[in-house]
Amino acid sequence: MTDTHTQKTLGSLSVSPLSLGGNVFGWSADEPQSFAVLDAYVEGGGNFIDTADVYSAWVPGNKGGESETVIGNWLASRGNRDQVVIATKVGAHPDHKGLAPATIKAAVDESLTRLRTDYIDLYYTHYDDESLDVSDFLPVLDELVKAGKVREIAASNISAQRLEAALTFSADENLARYVAVQPHYNLVSRETYEGELADTAARHGLGAVPYYALASGFLTGKYRPDSDVNSVRSEKAAQYLSTDRGRKVLAALHTVAAAHQAEHATVALAWLAAQPTVTSPIASARTVDQLPALLALSDLHLTNDELTLLNEASA
Fold first, then answer.
1. What is the pTM of this model?
2. What is the DSSP letter of 129?
């Protein structure tokens, strides 16, 4: 059952402290595995599922939309659409690249069809389309909100300057405004959000929903100099081991995790959740046994000393 006292808000949406990443659904997790993870996530109090129309077009034989299709089939079989918050994204699907109005209109209808729903709770522009002015695509997003196809809009992978321009345009024209930003942000990648972008989000009251919250699994602690982990992401995660910052962060995570008898992943997510503007970090699970460490985020409260230790290690 959802624990209401830990719920966070993004515009009109009420979301859980952990957003479940849907990038693995239809990729490294097949449909039965994905259904099991989604069931366990909801049973564990989660309600905020993140996907994108492009997931997982990068896999040979896939064309994009696989994750949305799995989630749509799960929603239909469980009959729980009104109990979950579904976030998806537009702009990166091979057939619908960019944010031209016609592209957005075609892409949203395909997402709705795959998700087997008539509305998307949170709709992100997946990548900013700097070939367009914000005045070119924000009116279309506003139309989707007015039509009831989308409840709230948000931006992923956007600069502080463009975010400011978009929010100003929405305010001036009385259009739907971004309520959230989805940045690349974690203990080994702080500069991708902190500073101007985080300041802009704070100034306008936007919530941050960080992706790569566990740095492709590196922050779970399973990647060590002497380990060989079989994972589709292990090469990317192993790169962090070769950096001074990566090794310092692992050591600090180990210290804090030991003090709480917690998993490294839980500590890494709790650090993110404690940062200004952060609403719900995104983390994905291929299997049900990976979920408890992620969901435990809301029960772990780091002390000021622990936050300082992690801040200094990750600086």
1. 0.95
2. -
**Contact criterion met (CB below 8 Å) for 155 and 181:** yes
**Is residue 127 a contact partner of residue 92, using CB atoms and an 8 Å limit?**
yes
The three-class DSSP label of residue 125 is strand
Please answer whether residues 100 and 141 qualify as being in contact, where contact means their C-beta atoms are separated by less than 8 angstroms.
Answer: no
- 100 φ, ψ to 5°? -60, 145
In tens, the pLDDT along 29-52 reads 999 999 999 999 999 999 999 999
d(CA 275, CA 261): 22
Give the pLDDT confidence score for residue 214 in this predicted structure: 97
Judge whether 119 counts as a catalytic residue: no
Number of neighbours of residue 40 by Cβ within 10 angstroms? 19
Q: Are 285 and 36 a contacting pair, CB within 8 Å? A: no
Secondary structure letter of residue 191 according to DSSP: T
pLDDT tens-digit map of 257-306: 999 999 999 999 999 999 999 999 999 999 999 999 999 999 999 999 99
Q: Please pick, among 55, 185, 211, 240, the residue that the annotation labels catalytic.
A: 55
